[in-house]
């Protein structure tokens, strides 16, 4: 198995380990971790350090009456509802294997997803997130044919792109399965799918900003 060469960076990993990321960003980082043993190890070490720091903090004294009130309220709570165990999803042989964090959101069968055509050779599928999560970012699957890519653009916020199958090339380098591209307003690029095409997971927290003459036409209609 090929080991990824493009990673989220320490800031994103620390925020993930500390639970500071929104749902969309957490999903893409967790999916990268499923494909990258190096970053999994880094996050485990970060979580261990965070746990050690918490244990070293002296606890504040609690009024015994406060504890009794909390326990009384717990006794009054109804038992949690029993939820049925989800049925296993079997991956069709012709569908690329998706890492588990992502399979929980979209399943295994890509052909059953509600793909939308953006342009010739480029389709997308929005991933439903929890209530209110879209205010902190959107997640979508992107499917690009050989040699296809969006117009040149920069970013009003952060754009995270994780390759799930195939690959793409842009001004930042070549990205293959498991690689995560991190782009912000300092990056202007045009990702183009490699010969075998590309399936990727993309997360944005603000609309893209297309550049050049085409941008004057597209930007008013872009709603990340």
TrEMBL record:
Residues 74-93 are annotated as: Disordered. CDD domains: cupin_ChrR. Residues 109-203 form the ChrR-like cupin domain. InterPro entries: Anti-sigma_ChrR (IPR012807), Anti_sigma_zinc_sf (IPR041916), ChrR-like_cupin_dom (IPR025979), RmlC-like_jellyroll (IPR014710), RmlC_Cupin_sf (IPR011051). SUPFAM superfamilies: RmlC-like cupins. This is Anti-sigma factor. It comes from Roseomonas genomospecies 6.
């Amino acid at each position: 198995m090929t080991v990824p060469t493009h990673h989220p960076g320490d800031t994103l990993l620390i925020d993930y380990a500390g639970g500071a990321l929104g749902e969309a960003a957490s999903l893409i980082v967790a999916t990268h971790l499923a494909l990258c043993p190096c970053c999994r190890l880094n996050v485990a070490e970060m979580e261990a350090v965070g746990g050690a720091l918490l244990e070293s903090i002296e606890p504040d004294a609690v009024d015994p009456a406060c504890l009794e009130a909390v326990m009384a309220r717990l006794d009054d709570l109804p038992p949690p509802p029993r939820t049925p165990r989800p049925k296993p999803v079997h991956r069709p042989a012709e569908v690329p294997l998706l890492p588990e964090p992502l399979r929980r959101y979209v399943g295994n069968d890509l052909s059953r997803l509600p793909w939308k055509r953006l342009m010739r050779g480029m389709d997308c599928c929005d991933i439903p997130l929890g209530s209110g999560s879209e205010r902190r970012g959107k997640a979508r699957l992107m499917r690009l044919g050989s040699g296809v890519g969006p117009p040149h653009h920069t970013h009003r916020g952060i754009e995270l792109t994780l390759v799930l199958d195939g690959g793409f090339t842009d001004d930042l380098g070549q990205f293959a399965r498991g690689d995560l591209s991190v782009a912000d307003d300092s990056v202007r690029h045009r990702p183009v799918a490699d010969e075998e095409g590309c399936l990727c997971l993309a997360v944005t927290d603000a609309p893209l900003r297309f550049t050049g003459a085409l941008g004057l036409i597209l930007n008013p209609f872009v709603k990340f």
